[in-house]
Amino acid sequence: MSDAPFRIVAHPHLGPLPTAETVPITVDGESLDARAGEPVAATLLAHGRRICRTTIRTSEARGVFCAIGLCGDCAMQIDGVPGVRTCITPVRAGMRVETQHGLGAWDAPTPR
Amino acid sequence: MTMRTELAVVGGGPAGLAVAIEAARRGVQVTLVDCGGEPGGALALQTHAYDGVGLYGFAIGALLWQAAAAGATLLPRTLVWGLFEDRTLGLAINHGTDAERSDLLQAEIVLIATGAVDRFTPFPGATLPGVLTATAALTLFHRWRVRPGMHALIVGSDPIAARVEQAVREAGMQPTHVPSADGLHALAGADRTLATVEKRGESAAPAWTREQDTLILAEGMQPANELTRMVDCAMVWSAALGGHVPRHDAKMQTSVPGVFVAGDAAGVGDVGSAMLHGRVAAAAIADRLGKKKLAFGAFPVTITAGAFRPIHAAIWQSVRVTEAAR
Questions:
Q1: In A, which residues are within 8 Å of B127 by CB distance?
Q2: CA B259, CA B254: separation in Å to the nearest integer?
Q3: Do B148 and A66 touch (CB under 8 A)?
Q4: In chain A, where do the E strands start and end?
Q5: What is the pLDDT of residue B155?
Q6: Distances in Å between the alpha carbon of B75 and those of B31, B38, B65, B228?
Q7: What average pLDDT does range B101-123 have in this prediction?
């Protein structure tokens, strides 16, 4: 699956994009190829997905704003847990990512 | 279980790493925590070469991190969520990963080198997906290697705007630059993300309208001062230093004994002054801990430090103004 044009595959100072293992994740049911080690938000943007959640009262769209874990605008539901900041959460094989509406919804608790 | 160390450094950018290198050289037991997964703090995002060294920012960051690792305990991916009396830090180790765990770190001396965060003026549409801070844009381009769109409007007259514009070009996007957010309205397209930016005048009529899928706020940085405020360090306002900064003496100690600051957290400056702050603070801390006195020797990277004196002049002036007002 091509993720052009959003991946920066060549950079004048940083050189070519290093090779990375491909990690499969699903986002709202769609399978996406992530690069091992990158945050979830990077995978989303690389595939042109800019909306992470919608607000609780007015359902406005929100996406990555600060990218360093401060603002919370990129929060999504990950593996049934809402409010996870995707800009500082690394991808994991089989991760289930969902757009969060308002406060989101928890999966039924599972013992761990 | 509470961990203990002689010196806890918060932040692994140029200031914190300079402290760790210089303090370890003087025999201080140093533990440095950084919330990022990669070395160098904001340096790791800079792809321009610095005056006085022919090195790109990210290369300087990596070099300093390596040097610090030789003498100090480095805890990357560790968020400091609190600083308490008796200089105990609350840590979230392996933050954001499945291996995340909580711990406390108690130190004889704490040095805060948390750097700076973006400052911006809100305007209608500033919350749309596609609107980013300057730090976010650099993080996307240089760390994540993604571009959020193809056309970026860069807003701000701070020197950082010029660097962002260069970074936008290098990321393969088309940059447009406007000096101020006055009158800006960001509008969504059918996909509910940023599609158009308008500049409106007093009549609310658009002076211009541009198709832009990305808007980058580059209006400057302010000191990240949460921890210094948490322990009630005396703060002063200094426009020249980017906002509220902890009052500190020439050895970088704040009004709270045993709590030091360095780098942008002590007042937004440049990388050279951040490293000098760090080295000055480290020497004072080593003295305080009764370590042997050493002259400043060779250092892994030396950067022209023209900003050092102006920064100190600015803070002293600010301190005088504050005290006169009492």
A1: 60, 62, 65, 73
A2: 6
A3: no
A4: 10-11, 15-16, 22-27, 30-35, 53-54, 61-62, 75-78, 81-85, 96-98, 100-101
A5: 97
A6: 7, 11, 11, 20
A7: 96
Q: CB contact, 8 Å: A8 with chain B?
A: yes
A62 touches chain B (CB under 8 A): yes
Return the H-helix or E-strand segment holding B196: strand B194-200
- Which pLDDT does position A5 carry in this prediction? 83
Give the one of B129, B135, B171 whose C-beta lies nearest to A68's C-beta.
B135
Q: Model ipTM?
A: 0.94
In the structure encoding, which two tokens stand for residue A100, read together? 């969060």
Specify whether the CB–CB gap between B265 and B235 falls below 8 A: no
d(C-alpha B207, C-alpha A58), whole Å: 29
Q: Does A94 touch chain B (CB under 8 A)?
A: no
Whole-model pTM?
A: 0.89
Contacts of residue B35, Cβ cutoff 8 Å, sequence gap at least 6:
A69, B77, B78, B79, B80, B95
CA B108 – CA B289 distance, rounded (Å): 8
Angular region, B74: left φ>0, alpha ψ -120 to 50, beta rest: beta
Structural domains for chain A = 22-100 (3.10.20.440)
CB-based burial, B108-132: b 16+ in 10 Å, e otherwise: bbbbbbbbbbbbbeebebbbbbbbb
The pair of structure tokens assigned to B250 is: 């020439």
